[in-house]
Amino acid sequence: MGNGVCSRRQRRIFQCLLLLTVVCGMLYGGMISYEMHKQLKRTEAMALKYQQHQESLSAQLQVYEHRSRLEKSLQKERLEHKKAKEYLVYKLEAQQSLNKEKNQHDDLKKQYYDLQEQHQVQGEDHGRLLDEHRERYEKLQQAKDVEVTQLKGA
């Protein structure tokens, strides 16, 4: 009889210990589940924060890339503008040089025509003077011949 009572008591203690272990295990499991749930929420919040940060960085990168393309385009435009400006300066200088040479050519042509006209006038003057001298020479020659004839006759 004592054996059965003791056995019941041990069983009862064993059942209480088992129940206590199960309850403690469930409490521990509940706490672990609660902590894991809290950790999961924190991890999700952190993941969301990192995702938003990544999206922000991605947007900044797109802005940077767009800005970089715009700067390259602007540099290209500036270079083309500089080349066009240099070409226009070259063209203007060439036009000025051409105009200067044309003006010099026109001046030389005018001088040539003026000299040619002077030459013609001087030629006409020379011809007239030559005719006058011939006339005078002939008159003097005739006067001399008359004088010689008069001297021979006298």
Automatic annotation (TrEMBL):
GO CC entries: Golgi membrane
Residues in coiled coil: 91-150
Residues spanning the membrane: 12-34
Record-linked InterPro entries: GOLIM4
The entry's keywords: Coiled coil, Membrane, Transmembrane, Transmembrane helix
PANTHER family in the cross-refs: GOLGI INTEGRAL MEMBRANE PROTEIN 4, GOLGI INTEGRAL MEMBRANE PROTEIN 4-RELATED
The protein, known as: Golgi integral membrane protein 4a
Originating organism: Seriola dumerili (Greater amberjack)
